Structure formats: structure tokens, C-alpha cells
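User: RNase P and RNase MRP subunit, Coemansia javaensis:
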Amino acid sequence: MEEAKEATTARAASERRQQVFKHALDRPYTTNWPAAKQAVQGEIVDMLCAALQPLGAHFAEARRAAKGAQRRRRRRRQRRAGRQAQGADSRDAGPAEALGAGRPELHRHVVLGINSTTRALERQARRTEPSAAEDLALVVACRGDVEAQLVAHLPGLAHAARGGSAADSALRLVGAAAGAEKRLAAATGQQRVSVVGIRAGDAALDAVIQRARAGVAAPAVPWVGSDLRPALHPMAVRELHTTAPIRDKAAAAAAKKRGPAATGAQPRKKAKAVPQV
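Assistant: Predicted structure for RNase P and RNase MRP subunit:
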């Protein structure tokens, strides 16, 4: 019992941990997100959710139609057998076709998801001439709802995608606060929407773009395409939050005095002197 109690006490002492703050040098080339007031970000998200309601209604109706088609095919397969029934079933529209059929015009001006928006920005950055039908005018990222690493590439990529556009008509990047992802997902009829890209051409979406251009600065990378003279900048230091085991200094000092036998460590062997020739 005493040995078990001592083992439990030693294990509990080893599992005790304390919060530790470690400082490390951060990357000097860190692209900051465009500055925007919290009220402006909330207003942009509100306007965007209202403008995307028709798209969410379309996806909801398309899913209901797809489920109905699946139920009809299932009942038909249960009533019929053979190749003739399978051939008749193949004429029905599948779930993917039902979701894509009859999409509203609004769908042409919206890009949903991190990967799709990233690919659109990459194509836009490679183009030498602007394309009003393909270029994104606004990107809204739910920074407060996703890991920072997932959207860390967007500021630099947005700066590359804006090209030589004037500041008043350039692409805008908005980092929304926590809670925006759930609202955008409900508005678009999706399970999750972390990033939304917007193209100009729709009246409701154009109003959102104009509001973003009026309240959010264009994305910029200071060391790319800048005429500023070289200057000294403060060192970038980041603070890492981690944990470390709590050490009993008194017990460690007493064990050190008792020698290696008390701690269970093997005594160090002395190195043999090598005679010089």
C-alpha cells in the first residue's frame, strides 16, 4: 500500500504543469490584414448575408428535389427488376444534376470555399489584363472561426491579384469576426463557408463591394512594388503559450546531495587517460 501510494504521489507530482511563456523571433516578412473597423466588418457581413439569400433558397430546394428523386428511384427498383428497370432509372436526374439545374444568375458572381477562392485569386494574379467577368472584387474570410494558418495566405495573394488596379477600384479583403461563418453558411445553404469570393455584376453584390471599398483599405505588401526608402523596423517577436512540468527544487537539491544512488541514475564512468606517444 505504501509503495502504491508513493507511486501515485510521484505520478501526480510529475503530471502537475504550469503555464510557460516563451519568446521567439517571428518572420520579418509578415503581411498584415487590411485594417477595418469592427462595425464596418459587421455591416459588410450583414449585407452579404442578405444578398446571398436567393442562392441559399436555391440550394435548399435543389436538395429537397434530389432527395425526392432518390426516393422515387428506390421505390422503382423495389417494384421492378432486371435491366429494363435499371435503364429507366438511369434517365432520372442524379443528386449532382439536381443541385446544378436551374441555378440563379447570382451563382455566377459567387465563389464559395477556401480552395475555390484561392484558385480564383491565383488565376487572377496570373492574368496580365483585367477581366470584369472573372476577377474577384471582394473576398470575405471568417478569420474568427477558422485556424489562422488556413487563411494566412490570403493577404499576400489578394495583393498579387489586385495587380495595378487603382486603390479605389482594387480588390478588397475583409477578415470577419467570430460568428460570421455560421451566418454565411445559413445564407448560402451550406454546412460550412469559411471564405466567400464576390465578382461584380449583380446589383445586391455591387452594393456590398462599394461598402467594402469605402470602409476597408486595399490589401498591400510593403516590400513589394513600393517606392519607400529602406528603413529600420522593430524586431518582430512572438509569444508562445505552452506548459511545463512543475519541479520541486527542494526535492531535486536533496536528491542531488544524496548522490546518483538516491535518484536511480548510474554513476558516470571516468574517462581513461590515453598515454601520449
